[in-house]
Amino acid sequence: MDEVPSVFISSEAFMDESAALPHLSRRNEDIALDMMKFIAMTTGYGKTTSSGVGFQGSGAASKPEDYAAHLLELYGRCLAAVQVSKK
Hints:
mainly alpha; 44% helix; globular
């Protein structure tokens, strides 16, 4: 049986490339996407289940299509907020 050589890759190779860029050079769309992910993950926004921390009820979706629509709407709101804050 052939041995598979072990390969060492430093943890720096897995760091996000955008971390090396200055804050102002990130695109509005990237910032809005990060904001949307954070809000959706921490609040459970748009999820079909009601078990979670954060906002409940009005943001719940009954179908996957509704969940996707909620996330797209949240992304649009995040993008608008980022664009206003950079003016």
